[in-house]
Design brief:
By secondary structure, the chain is mainly beta. Helices cover 9% and strands 21% of the residues.
Length: 302
């Protein structure tokens, strides 16, 4: 089973739109373009939306996908226990499907979903439990501690989240079973390096160490344009835990995926674009790009 990695997270080409709402858009101070879905994607997403809450079968019991575990037999069916993740994680590889009931049958039972991260050859999908981003902590539709309710919206070319599921995402060291939480990426292992470049500042995504890890930013270096060296330092946050970005929160608001009704559609927030009123507010080579609403954001020139 494959799980998200800091390397894949860092090289995702962000596709966010500025100041717009709706199921296919993000809001905040963002400025990259948002790729429109083709007819097949539109049909797939419509099918998900129609069946998101109805994708259960009376023939299936509740899934153990996404549950903590120490052994495979605690997961049931074709699910196995990934003990490399803190506290263990019941899951399996799966195939993304527009019909929730078929995803549930792949993923151990009712409320199971096949959560996709990224698209194409670099993407992958795995079984976990369904969730609702706006659910209150401790309710059945919320994720357990140390997880985030997400469809990994910013990793998809459409800028839309997959049907949301619970994925590992730490907010404190207590979520990491004896390891250290990197609060900039949600990954357990090593802490963020505060001496590095802050969010919203320019970076080069191609500058990595021998293992492919970021060496410049406190968070990750995200490619934000067509140029392979055009990046911005950014951090991820779990919006169910905090809505405040870690660096200059008065100037950097998290990018958020919203549904057609303006409700939060994903609990991953991306802290990336710094607001500005003049070019002097931005670090070269970034420029202050008008946002169409009387303000601006620091980004590379179009």
């Amino acid at each position: 089973m494959q799980t998200r990695s800091p390397i894949l997270t860092a090289v995702v080409l962000l596709t966010m739109a500025c100041g717009s709402s709706g199921s296919s858009n993000a809001t905040g101070d963002a400025g990259a373009t948002n790729t429109s879905a083709d007819a097949a994607d539109a049909g797939r997403d419509a099918g998900r939306d129609a069946g998101r809450d109805a994708g259960v079968s009376g023939d299936l019991g509740p899934t153990n996908a996404g549950n903590a575990c120490t052994r495979d037999d605690q997961c049931g069916g074709d699910l196995t226990c990934d003990t490399e993740l803190p506290g263990g994680f019941c899951s399996a590889d799966c195939n993304d499907d527009p019909t929730p009931s078929r995803e549930a049958s792949q993923c151990g039972g009712n409320n199971g979903t096949c959560l996709s991260f990224g698209d194409g050859e670099d993407g992958f999908a795995f079984c976990t439990r369904t969730c609702t981003p706006t659910a209150r902590a401790g309710t059945p539709s919320a994720c357990r501690g140390g997880q985030v309710c997400t469809g990994w919206w910013y990793t998809h070319e459409t800028g839309e989240p997959d049907a949301t599921g619970c994925d590992q995402f730490c907010s404190t060291d207590a979520d990491c079973a004896g390891m250290v939480c990197n609060t900039r990426t949600g990954l357990c292992g090593s802490a963020a390096v505060s001496a590095r470049i802050a969010d919203g500042e320019p970076c080069d995504p191609s500058r990595v160490d021998a293992e492919g890890n970021n060496v410049q930013c406190r968070g990750e270096c995200y490619q934000v344009g067509d140029g392979a060296t055009q990046g911005l330092c950014g951090s991820l946050i779990n919006l169910a835990v905090t809505t405040q970005c870690p660096d200059t929160p008065t100037a950097i608001a998290p990018e958020v995926a919203l549904d057609d009704g303006g409700e939060r559609a994903d609990n991953i927030g991306v802290c990336l674009y710094k607001s500005c009123t003049a070019r002097t507010d931005c670090t070269a080579p970034l420029q202050c790009i008008p946002d169409g609403a009387g303000g601006g954001y620091c980004d590379y020139a179009p």
